[in-house]
């Protein structure tokens, strides 16, 4: 197996693209905090490892590209599946998007009123930004 065949196999295995970087074959445009990599080793051979928070660890060296590709595929396909019900939870949240946005706007407007010293009925209290107030707690100019 070579690197191009590995990428095709990983995609067939439904491994997310963001989990691995294979320079020149499958580059991650924006690198996450943690991902696996496969690259030519300095000198001769291949190296497979995990890059996490800008540090490389769990590195293994191989003489052949085939062995390195098989190792990386085994690591990436051995990852646990997503938690049960996670997909349904995401779909539920997405289905409630309009209600969530409406509630967020209400909360935001309420916080603005409280910050500006307004009551729920729209009346301004001391220091508000309404008539006679400058938002700093004093009289207007």
Overall description:
- The protein is built from four helices and four strands.
- With 141 residues, the protein is an alpha+beta fold.
- Helix 1 (3-12) runs parallel beside helix 2.
- It is elongated and about 70 Å long.
- The protein starts with a helix and ends in a 26-residue tail after the last helix.
Quickly describe the structure.
The chain is built from four helices and four strands. It is of the alpha+beta class.
Which descriptors would you attach to this protein?
141 residues, alpha+beta, 4 strands
Q: What is the C-alpha radius of gyration, as a whole number of Å?
A: 27 Å
Number of strands: 4
Strand percentage, roughly?
Answer: 15-25%
Distance between the termini: 77 Å
User: Biggest sheet: strands, sense, closure?
Assistant: 4 strands, mixed
- Unreliable spans are 126-141
- Shape, per Cα inertia axes: elongated
Structural class given helices, strands, pairing? alpha+beta
On the 0 to 100 scale, the average pLDDT is 81
Helix-residue proportion: 25-40%
Q: What sequence of helices (H) and strands (E) makes up the elements?
A: HEEEEHHH
Biggest sheet: strand arrangement: 1-2-3-4
């Amino acid at each position: 197996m070579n690197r191009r065949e590995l990428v095709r196999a990983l995609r067939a295995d439904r491994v997310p693209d963001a989990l691995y970087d294979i320079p020149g074959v499958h580059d991650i445009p924006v690198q996450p905090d943690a991902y696996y990599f496969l690259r030519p080793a300095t000198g001769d051979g291949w190296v497979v490892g995990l890059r996490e928070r800008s540090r490389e660890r769990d590195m293994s060296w191989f003489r052949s590209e085939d062995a390195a590709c098989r190792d990386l595929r085994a690591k990436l396909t051995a990852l646990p599946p997503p938690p049960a019900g996670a997909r349904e939870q995401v779909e539920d949240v997405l289905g409630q998007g309009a209600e969530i946005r409406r509630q967020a706007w209400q909360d935001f407007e309420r916080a603005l009123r409280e910050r500006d010293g307004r009551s729920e009925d729209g009346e301004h209290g001391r220091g508000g930004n309404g008539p006679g107030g400058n938002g700093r707690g004093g009289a207007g100019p």
